[in-house]
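Morning F.,

Quick status update on the modeling queue. The single chain you submitted on Monday has been processed. Sequence for confirmation:
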Amino acid sequence: MQHLLSKFVLIGLLTSYFNKSFSQTETATLREDKIVIIQMKNGDEYKGSILKKDNERILLSMENGEINLIVSNVNSIENYDYVGKFEFANPHDTRYFFGPTGIPIKKGKGYYQNILVTTNFFNYGISNNISIGGGFEFISTVSGSPIWFLTPKIGHHISENIHMGGGFIMAGFAAEGTVTLGYGIFTVGQSETNLSVGVGYGIIAGELSDYPAIMMSGTHRISKSIALLSENYVIRDNFYFGIHGIRILSRKNSFDIGTIVIPEIGEWIPALPYVGYVRVF
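Structure tokens below.
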């Protein structure tokens, strides 16, 4: 039973840590001659250039005129550096449905991710090439036998359209040891459209898996708020499974809706539902 459980966890780890293209948009030092996004404490957002700012008010020039904002009501001000055909950058281009790829999280940036309601992850960039993270499964934790995760990663920007990286994800079981997946990933493309190919090996009970797991995943943004996603994995003996669906985007959030397809059980269960949520910070 433990060996079977380890196999399923390894599958989850594989999907969870192979794919991650381009994380959060890095915010530069604020300059008054740049376009900024001002978010108010009540949730309203304003985009424009700052004409004047003091301790009490901000005069903002917008497309439809000028507006005075009260400084005490401002929640945050960020530079609007996005260049592209959509209104805002992809807020979560570090992952497809599950895990990181060769694209590193920028220093000081991070995200919270919830997978299938019960599993939670936090990842944070400690430099422009290194991130740390971890998570836990809620039901096992409250039942007294927690399943926990560690997710360190190194990524490198080679060129505008190429990133490479590697790392591992470790899952720990309260009294049954750990399962670890080491991986390497190669990503081609940019934030809105990209393709990743990866290879990983698992370590279960101290033994390295005999065969690699191979991944190919991609995404294509078709509108301001919708992107298509597909993840595909092949493990030993041509065992295949895939996750296919869409991502609903906003400036700081993304919602994933998809189906998990496993041909070996397709006769009885054609597809399983997948849902996920990410909040970047």
